[in-house]
Every structure is written in structure tokens, then in C-alpha cells.
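Quick one, probably user error.
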């Protein structure tokens, strides 16, 4: 498995840190890690994409409200 990680440019240092940690862990199925801030570069040769995203939560956030904010991403 080769992981392709994508994040915003301001998070480049953290992204590279995650890449190094994953590589150092020497997981037997992990063949490589691509860390990118460019969506085209990050998605090159990807067979399966799992998109995780977050945003600052309000003090009280309902599940339906959280799901409605992510709905436009998957259409």
C-alpha cells in the first residue's frame, strides 16, 4: 500500500512529520508515503480515496449539522 496524504500548504511541516512517522514505523504493508499540498499530485495513481476533513466545532453540534457541512464534498 502507498499512502497519499493531502493537506493545505500551511500544514506542510506537519504533513512531512506524519510521512516520516509512517515511514519510521516500518509497517510491513506500507510500501511508500506521498505527502502533497497539490490535489493533482496527491491523487496521481490513486485507486481508492478516503477523505477525512474537519472544521472547528461549535459548543453544541448535532450530527445532522456536521453531515450537512460535508455533503457538498461528496457530490
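Nope, works fine. Designed sequence:
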Amino acid at each position: 500500500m502507498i499512502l497519499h496524504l493531502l493537506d493545505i500548504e500551511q500544514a506542510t511541516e506537519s504533513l512531512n512529520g506524519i510521512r516520516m512517522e509512517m515511514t519510521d514505523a516500518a509497517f510491513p504493508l506500507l510500501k511508500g508515503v506521498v505527502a502533497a499540498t497539490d490535489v493533482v499530485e496527491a491523487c496521481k495513481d490513486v485507486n481508492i480515496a478516503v477523505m477525512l476533513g474537519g472544521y472547528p466545532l461549535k459548543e453544541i453540534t448535532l450530527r445532522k449539522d456536521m453531515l450537512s457541512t460535508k455533503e457538498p464534498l461528496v457530490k
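The beta strands are 2-6, 32-36.
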